[in-house]
Amino acid sequence: MDNIPLWVQILALACLIFLSAFFAMAETALMAASRFRLRHEAKRGSNRAIATLWLLERTEQLLSLVLIANTLLNAMAIALVTAIAINAFGLEEHVILISTGVVVFMLIVLAEISPKVIGARYADQIVLPASFILRPLLRAARPLIWFVNLFVATLLKLFRVKPAPNPHEAGLSSEELRSLLLESGNFIPQKHKSILLNLFDLDTISVEDVMTPRAQIEALNLAVPVEEIKEQLTTCYHNKLPVYDGEINQIVGILHVRKAVALLNEEDELTVEHFRALLAEPYFIPQDTAVFAQLQNFQENRERLAIIVDEYGEVQGLVTLDDIIEEMIGEFTTSTPSAARADTFGWDNRGECLLEGTTALRDVNKRLGLNFPTDGPKTLNGLLLEWLQDIPDAPISVRIGNCIIEVVQVQNQSIKVVKLRQH
Fold it and tell me: Which regions of the chain are under pLDDT 50?
């Protein structure tokens, strides 16, 4: 060392610290980089992304390379500083201790903490150029890595530790995908994010959650006079109507309203049999069918409307393809008055909201930011009846969670109108 100029030794020390910092920064950047973004870039033909993914597929070898390189570089830096200190101040115990302390502090600040912070913060920008350096190094150092890992594997077997699978090879669960969407920030437009999140919900809810309840179904009764049937058809807001004979549980078919209106113009003397001849076969489904499964069933069976029945065959409601689409993308323009009203409710200036008792709890939770339970009753009327265990007399108020619900009107053994107040 006496024959080597001091400036050369200091330059060598700076190089060692720089290389140690590079490996520390590259290691952190590789672990923090977005795998999905790298795969996207690789599909677009990015050689850097392909090289990076190649490295990430060999995580154990990569970590071994980084740790071996860091250990050797740090040891060489400590030895070099110690040699410089001894040459300058003599072979004294306190000289060795001080020089070792100084170089350890420098390595911690300059070669460990600072580069790792930078690597974590700018992972995507660092990982691609770093992969071009690490890939050939990994290939060149394979014999050394194999030799070191041989002892590591023996030690792990001695302590009966099984190597963990590569976490990046495992698929993501639906909840993990949901978390990725929620944390995507401004990378995905809010509307797109909302649709994707709603898609995940389709498997967790049943058609009962999105159906039109039995009491709100507009259906055609063949047991009434023909004049009443004509009047209902001319004022109907729907393209298709369930048709029953005397009682709603006796559904005999589905009537396409356009065909019926055309029949009104063609026939002078209409009878019930004319309408019965136009009926299509009704499509029945169980009330616990998952919404996503029903979307697939609609596609496979080429249907757009299904009648929901319970275990006893009693009609509970109906669901249409439009109902499921609205569950995914939100309300869209419709000529149905009830649908137009459902899209308008919200808190007023006094923190109150007036709603019908038939309003779905899921809609209330979405629009008002509440958290009513939806695993039992599906409407405000059902929730209050279950809560009170009786049909109440208006006015009466109850508090559920952070909301006060006032029963405003009761009619026909059900709660007709309620008022919600924020508490």
Answer: 335, 338-342
